[in-house]
Structure formats: structure tokens, C-alpha cells
Amino acid sequence: MTKKNTDGRTILVIEDERPLLEAINAKLVKNGFDVIAARSVEQAFDAKLGKNGSKVMTIQSIEEALNYIESLERVDAVWLDHHLLGEENGLDFVKKFKANGGRWNKIPVFVVSNAASPKTVQSYIRAGVSTYYVKSDHRLDKIVKDIAFFLDRQRS
Amino acid sequence: MNKKNTISASDEIISHLKVLAKEKEVVRRRLAVTAKKLAVTAKKLAAIAEEKELVRRKLAATAREKEVVRRELAVTADKLAVTAEQLAATAREKESARRRKLAATAEKLAATAEELAATAREKESVRRKLAVTAAKLAVTAEKLAVTAEKLAATAEKLAATAKEKESVRRKLAVTAEKLAATAEEKELVRRKLAVIAGELALTAKEKEVVRRKLAVTAAKLKRSYETLEKKVLERTKSLEMARAKEEAILLSIGDGLLATDEKGNIIFINKTAEKLLGKKSKEVVKKKFSDVIPLEDEKGALIPLEKHPVNMVLVTGATTAALPTAYYKRKDEKRFPMAVMATPVILNGKVIGTIKVFRDITYEREIDKAKTEFVSLASHQLRTPLSTVNWYAEMLLAGDVGELNEKQKKYLDEVYRSNQRMVELVNALLDVASLELGTFVIEPELTDICKLTKHAIREQKPQIDAKKIRFSFSCGKSVSRIQADPKLLRMVIQNILSNAVKYTPEGGKIGFSITVADKKNVLMKISDTGYGIPKNQQDKIFTKLFRADNVRDKDTDGTGLGLYIVRSIVENSGGKVWFKSLGGEENKGTTFFVTLPLKGKEKTVKVVRINK
């Protein structure tokens, strides 16, 4: 499922809906991203996942997850859904991720979710995410293009 | 009644005048009679005096004649004496027999002489007596003359008096005539009065009739009054009952009810209020409302007095609701969210107190929360499969997994576009649900309406370009930032703009302008050269889920919710939305107008609820 790209941008995708996760993964890979996919906050930090893509993995705690992110060789961006499997949602992840002061906590977080209530969106923006996309209102290729553009600009 | 009096009074005067006239006539007649009598008496007296004079004169004549006779007698006597001497001498000379005869005769003659003398003497005495009598008579005559004179004077006086009396009489007669005339006039007047009196009598009769009727009416009225009194008594009773009932109703209202006077002192609370506040009526009556029902916000901070709804009502005189997050803490420290609606009690245009209705809305809060959660959950749950269809169709169409043939592309394109419509519909429905649930809290801030509009136009740019629509936009220089909720304002602009784009055919024109309408409002005007709105459906255009026939024919996308949302937001923001359209005549276009207050809505109720 992964496809190495000379560019080597690695993106962590946290999305609970399997068909969507697969679509995202396919599109990102097609666009040259390395993808780490997870369906829950815990999975996102599954140490076994590594750079090898969208396998479903489990992780026991947020601390472990954060440790996992710390252990990653490289991660350039996070693709995050709001509703996730388990107790915690995307916002919980963002807050913890931004708060833990780790080496990757400066990377951009793109929320792509169908939870479109203004209150939710504002909470994410306040928590420091880069962009908030309402899934059903945006084409997949547009979001991927946006993220690529964002990362390109950041790099240059 | 007065007329009657006047009539009898004038009658009295007339009769009195008549009496007077009669009396005067009587006096006049008496005076005339007296004058006549006096005149007669005077004449008689004059006649007597004349007769006496005649008598006197006759007496005097007789006396003279007697004197003549006496002198003649004396002469005769002398002659007789002479004769007698001659005769005696003759007798003596002549005869003795005859002497005796002569003597006798002489004697006789002497006797006769003597008798004559006696007679003369008698006559003389008679004469004397007559003279005396004459003298007396003269005196008497004189006296009588005097008397006569006096009488004459008297008569004259009487005549004068009579004249005067006559003049008086005449005057009286004149007066009497006048009086008679007056009397006639009076008579006329009297007759007129009599006529009037007759009329009055008629009127009086009529009045009598009326009076009788009135009497009957009065009797009826009396009866009615009695009935009325009875009814009043009954009504009073029933009113007392009703009052008692009303009080009972007030007391038993399921919501807390608290009334204050114009100073904010509590004058009444009902049972529910007692229960909710945990205080008895007698504990709170006459106390200041703020001491009895202090309100807290969500965090437990006291809501200041000036924001307390009862105080706001007293200050502004307008119905006021508490902030949606007002809590009341009871003595037992139990806190509950309280819905408060305070209204002024207005009598003769003056606020004489307030009525505060409040209740525990814990349950409603829970329901609201559940509804909100449902909406957000539904929004997610509905959108997720739509997103899946969207993205997979998109990838297929993009040829991510191999090229499609034209037919496959066409079919998949239908799937993709229908799915897009479904997304739009879900979005609109969720907006409506949010608006209707009141979960859309209006958060006005100074918003740059021009910038917001430009952004919305940019979003529509691909569609505008695709249809080769000539688009013009102008924002007046004087349009400053307005007090509005940007996300709601964006919804309004997006909906109206997307409608214009959707319903304008290729190559059409759209004009969007924003100007300051007046000192208080900003005006948005969006005109297109689109299909227009059929005349017979123009009144339904703002109705939820309504779509005009002509655009449904055109098979363009649309949810029938956009204008409903627009109107809901605009009207809740204190603005207006309307349109002009040439009734569906092909491509004559439509112009929408939206006004919004520059200073936002003057709000008393903070939570917006949309009328369904």
C-alpha cells in the first residue's frame, strides 16, 4: 500500500471509516506521500505500524501514542478525522499532541471531517490545526493538492 | 307647568283689570248720577228761588195794590165821609126817615167803614205781616239768593267737578276704552294663550300619555332594576367565585409566577414559585425581587442587577427574557437552569409592575442537548457515506484505477452530481435544523460585509465562469462594517448568490451591489437575468422545501431550503428580504433585496428561535 517517493513526505492519517481511510490512503500514495494510517488515536501510535501504511493496529494509551510519534523517523503532517473509534476524538488528540512538547508537535494538522458544526471547527482552529475541511464539501484530490501545496510552501 | 302658571296669572290680571274697569264705570256712573242730581237740585233751588222772588214780587205788588186800594179806600172813605156829611146834611136837610135809614146806613156804613177799617187794619196788619213776611221773604229770598248763589257756585263747582269728573270719566272712558282695547288685546292674547293653553293641554295630554307610558316604563324599569339587582347579586357572587377561581388558577399555574410592583417589590408568588424557590409566600412578599431570586450564570457568578430581567422590564418597559444560561440556586444549594420571562404590567400607559414567569428547564436543557447532539451526529452520519460515494466516484472519474469509457464516465458523472445534490440537501437540512433548534447562537461582531461577499463570490467563481456569466460587483464606499454574525451573514449571501448563478442561463448577467440604504440599514441587491419566479408561485418562494415549477423543469440543482434559510436569518437579524421578478417570463430575471440593520438586532432574547 505504500509507495516510496523521492519526496518522502510522510503523513499520518487518522480516520475511523474504513472505506474513507482506504480512499485517502490510495489518493495520498498516488500523490507520492508515505502514509501511516490509523483508525483510532491509539492506532495512530502503534509502534508496529511504522512506515508501512494502512494496517489496522492497536495501541494502549495516549502516552504510548505520543511516544510512538516521537519514535517516528519522519512525519510531515497529520490528516485527522474528528469522529474516531474509541472514547477520544480528534480534538483530544490535537490537544495532547500540541501540548506534549515533542519534536513533531509543530507539524501541520489537517482536520478532514464531516463534523461541521461551527463550534467544533472553531475548537480545532483554536487548538492550532492548519485547516479544517468538511469532507462532503470537498473533493479528495483538492484536499490532497492543498496539503501538498502547504508542505511545499513550508519547505521552501 | 310654567306655561300653565303664566296663563292663569295672565287670566287673573285680565279678570282683575276687568273688575277694575267695571268698578271705574260704576264710579263714573255714580258720579254722573250725582252730578245730574246736583244739577237738578241746583235747578230746583233756582226755581224755588225764582218762585220765591215771584211770590215776593206778587206780595210786593199786592201790597202796593192794597196800598192803592187803601188810599183809594181812604179817599173813598173821605169822599164817603164827605158824602156822608153831605148826605147827613142832605138827610138832616132832607128827611127824618131817611135820616134813620141814613143813620142806619151811616151806621152801616160806619160799620162797614169800621169793618173796612178793620179790614184795612187787618189788611194793614196783613200788609205789615205781608211786609214782614215780604221782608222775611226778601231776607229769605236774599238768603235764598245767597244760597242760590252758593248753590250756583256749588252747582258751578259741581259742574266743574262734574266737568272734571266728566273729563275724568272721559279719561276713564278712554282708559276704559284703552283698557277695553288692552282687554281686547288681552283677550286676543288670552285667546292665543287659550290656543296655546289648548295646545299645551294637548301637549299636556300627550305628556300625560307619555307620562303614563313612562310610568309603565318606570314600572318595567323598576321590575328590571329588581331583576338587575338580583342579577348583580348573582353576578357579584359569580364574580367573587371567578375571582377566587382566578386566584386559585394563578396559585396553581404550573410555572412559577411572581408579581412585583413598580419598585420591584414582590406582591405575589404562586405555589409553583414557592416550590421552585424553596421559599414561602409570606417570606418573600414585600421584599425586593433581587433579594429573593438572585440569578447566576453558568459558572455560578451572580448576574448583575442591571441584567436581571425584572429590572430590565422596570427600566425599559419591554418584555425581557433572562440570558439562556440563568441559574437559580436554592437554599438547599440545589441549582437549576431557569427560564425567565418578565413582562411589564401596564395600566393606562404606565408600568405599574412586572410579572415574572419562570420555570425549571433542566428537562428542556437535556432535550435541547439531545437534539443538538442528534443534529451533529446526524450531520456526521449522513455525510460520511455521501463523502465515500463522492470520493470513490471522483477517483473513478479521475481514472485513478484505470480509464473509463465515455458511457461509464457519463453514468458515473450522474452518480457524482446526484451525490453532490444530496450533500447540498443534507447541508441545508442541517442548517435548517440548527436554526430551528436555536442551536445557532447569534454572535454578532463587526463584520466586513464587502469582504465577506467577495469571498462568497470567489467560492462561486468556477460555476460563474463555467456558465460564462457576466458578473459585476460593487460595494459602496460608505458601507462600513456592520454588526452581524459572520457565519449567518455568509449563509445569506451564499444562498442568494448561488441561486442567482444556478437560475441564470449561460451567458446571462448577474449584478451584486451593496449600499447604505439609510442611516440604519445596509442594502444588498442581487439581480440576475435568469428564469424568474412564476407569478402564481411568488408567494411560496420562501417556504421550506418549495421549488418553483420553471426551475424544476430546467432540472437545475436546488434543495428548496436556501430562501427559507435566508429569510429565517434575515428576519431574525432584524432585516428584510424581498424580490422583484417578472413572473416567470423567460429570462427576464429576478432581483433580490436584503436589508440588514447596521447595528445588528436590538435584542431582548438572546437565543434565536426560528418560526416554523
Task: Give short descriptive properties of this protein.
heterodimer, A: Rossmann fold, five-stranded parallel β-sheet, 15% strand, globular, B: 612 residues, Helix Hairpins, Beta-Lactamase, 4 domains, five-stranded mixed β-sheet, rod-shaped, disordered C terminus
Structure, briefly:
Chain A is α/β, with parallel strands linked by helices and 156 residues long.
CATH class of the largest domain in chain B: Mainly Alpha
**Helix amount of chain A, in percent?**
40-55%
Q: How many distinct folded domains of chain A?
A: 1
What is the number of E strands of chain B?
Answer: 14
Enter the CATH topology name of chain A. Answer: Rossmann fold
List the uncertain runs of chain A: 1-6, 45-61
Sheet with most strands: strand arrangement of chain A: 2-1-3-4-5
Shape of chain A: globular
Structural class of chain B: alpha+beta
Helix content of chain B: 55-70%
Using only CA atoms, what is the Rg of chain A? 14 Å
- Overall pLDDT confidence of chain A: 75
Class from secondary-structure proportions of chain A:
alpha/beta
| CA(first)-CA(last) distance of chain A | 29 Å
